[in-house]
Amino acid sequence: MFRAIILTIFLVSLLVVSTSSPAWAAQMNARIDPNSDESTFKVTYIKTVFIEYPNGGKIFDELRTQEWTITGAADSTNPGVQNLINALNSKIKSDGSQVIISDLDVTYNFHLKGRNLAAAIDYKLILEGTLINYIISKDQSKTLIDLGWRGLTATNDIVIDGVEINHPISLLRDKEPAVYNILAGTEAEQILSKNLIDANYILEQPMTNWHFLFDPTGINVDAGTFGLDESITGFVISHWTMGESSLREGRQVERVFEAEVNADQKYVIRSVQSADAANLSTIGFGALDLLDGVEIAGVTPTAPSGYATTSTGEFPVTIVYGMAAMAAIGGVGFFIKSSRSLKNQETAQTGIDPSRLTMYDTSLASGGYHTNRGEAQLTDDSDYQKTRILYDAETTQQAPPQQSPPPQTATPTMLDQACGCEADSGDPDYSCDCAMQGHCICSADCTCSTDVCKETVGQL
After folding, report:
1. Calpha distance 407→68 (Å, rounded)
2. Could you tell me if 179 and 169 are in contact, meaning their C-beta atoms sit under 8 angstroms apart?
3. Helix (H) or strand (E) holding 286
4. Could you tell me the residue ranges of all domains in the chain?
5. What is the Cα–Cα distance from 166 to 153, expressed in whole angstroms?
């Protein structure tokens, strides 16, 4: 039971920390082909800046009705893109990796929308490029590939076609100089000066904590019929995924930086970035390792014999068996409780205990066919008239509703029951029971001991 409680807490914690924001600060996708000298990658950087002016003021006057968009694209022939390539390669080298970015395309989209209480500026930057020099060594059985290039970050100014794309404060300086003059020299300027091109967290998260999936789809004979890329035909694929908030990777939350600016009015500046995410795959089966502090993968065409892991190693197996155990425990508990409830229903006394009831005769009949009518009453109920059922006589008027119960006398003998007289109809076969009390006329020789018969006999 103790283990079941611990496992329950474990699963609940996993569900709680597994929630993450749908927008990512840096989202990376790359596929490394160990059989080629170059591979492609794509990284998207997203950030949103809110400038709040609930009390009005100069910034309110400047941005309330403003809306503009700046977009652009450039390739490696652009001097600004060349500057960015050099900055990224310098960062990769400082991280200990030998990988080089040989080609890069840049697309950016910046949008400002002013409203009555706040203005929002969305920054989106997309880098698509080519990686080379990622093969460390290669032989007939295994290829070692470099994975230490993942922290694609640039801290310097990157100017493309006159637009500085790496620092949000630069865009305000160029497009909204009145707003920039109010924020300059404050903590808000420091927040807005943080570089947009930042994927350090993707590198800092060890790939042993990433989710791993081994996909043998490429080795299927008919894989090409499903539109499979020809470059992976005949090979298996290894996938690593980072970005899920979990116990292994840690709880990932959005990064929010906030500052207050006291100028002509009080303003609040917030910069919001969600947790990073990455998807990295390689053709072949990849086994992670370290080489001089740099993460690498040893890639083979097929998986080792007997290999049967899941997307997260043994972790999901524990979850699956744990959930199965909890379901079994819950089922056993349910059946035990149901069995006890059923037994209680079978043995429990319902209604009134018959030992507490007393029988009262309400009518008797005489003749060839006798029908005795009666009703039951609680022995501890002194007021019998509250529950007494009254019956209509077939030949006379209804009995008074408040008539007292008959006295408790000895059971009449057959002689007493036979005693009676002819009814008004004159039919001698219609005999009256003396217990009918007033519903018949007794003869002079009636020996019935009831008062009504005695009175009748006395009158004859």
Report:
1. 105
2. no
3. strand 285-291
4. 19-207+244-282, 354-460
5. 10
Q: For residues 307 and 286, is the Cβ–Cβ distance under 8 A?
A: no
At 113 the three-state DSSP class reads strand
Q: What distance lies between CA 96 and its chain's CA centroid? A: 42
The predicted pLDDT at position 361 comes to 66
235 Cβ partners below 8 Å, 6+ apart?
218, 219, 283, 284, 301
Tens of pLDDT along 96-130? Answer: 999 999 999 999 999 999 999 999 999 999 999 99
Joined tokens for residue 208: 């042993």
What is the gyration radius of the CA atoms in the chain, in angstroms? 48
Instruction: Extract the residue ranges of the chain whose pLDDT is less than 50.
Output: 2, 4-6, 8-24, 221-228, 309-317, 390-399, 409-431, 437-439
Q: H helices within 304-376, ranges in order?
A: 315-347
Decide: 120 and 66 in contact? Cβ < 8 Å.
no
Cβ atoms of residues 81 and 104 within 8 Å: yes
